[in-house]
Amino acid sequence: MRMPLECVTPRSARMRAMKSKLTAGVAVVGTLLAACTTDFGMREREPRPPAPVVDKNAASVAVLTEDLQLLQKRLEQHLAATGYESLLLHSGTAPLLFRDDQNYPFHAYAPFRHWVPLIDVEDCFLHVVPGRRPLLVFHRAEDYWHLTAGLPDTWWSDLFDIVPAADLDAARRALPADLSRAAYIGEAFAALPGWGVAAVNPERLLMRLRPCSQSHGLRRGF
Asked: Of the N and C termini of the chain, which has fewer Cβ atoms inside 10 Å?
């Protein structure tokens, strides 16, 4: 049985009808999304202004400056109580490997690091006189066999008087001629008796410095 001609819909007509319905559906969805965005505050946010730039070096300098002032104030009391006028700190010396010309990995001694954020250069000396800028004698060997460290040129450099020294003899010449009232803190070395320091690791001074090092050094993180 054939259907009447008026019941047969051409294919092109059916496609147009489907497209029209699809277009209407998309329009309805768009209207609903716009309404939801308006109702629930889901509008696109305006870009935030850039965060302010913080000068971390300036902040670090301020912290270290405050620390040095506090350390000097405490040191003045400790020296007066033990009969010394200044403090001489040694960063240490890396020992040689057995039957070799290379050294073990080096890490500066804690009393030295307590004053200056320098951890990986051996045979440096820090001479501290209360009320004066600390003198840092920086070891810079004249040796083409090994890579030598350059003079510190960083955020903390201006807080110290820095003098290069190629060896221990040069380091002694860079220090004050008279160290007869200076207490030396560090490991003794062969040439130290000729430096004329007042005492090597005096126990009374070490005992007074220890509480300060344990509490204050942890806050600095050195």
From this structure: N
CATH architecture of the domain 66-97+104-220 equals 3-Layer(aba) Sandwich (3.40)
User: Domain spans of the chain?
Assistant: 13-40, 66-97+104-220
151-163 confidence digits (pLDDT tens): 888 889 999 999 9
String of DSSP letters for the chain? -PPPGGGPPPHHHHHHHHHHHHHHHHHHHHHHHHHHHHHHT-PPPPPPPPPPPP-HHHHHHHHHHHHHHHHHHHHHHHHHHHT-SEEEEE---PPBPTTSS-BPP----HHHHTTSS--S-SS-EEEE-TTSPPEEEEE----TTSPPPPPP-STTGGGSEEEEESSHHHHHHHS-S--TTEEEES---TTGGGG--SEES-HHHHHHHHHHHHHHHHHHT-
Average pLDDT over residues 10-26: 65
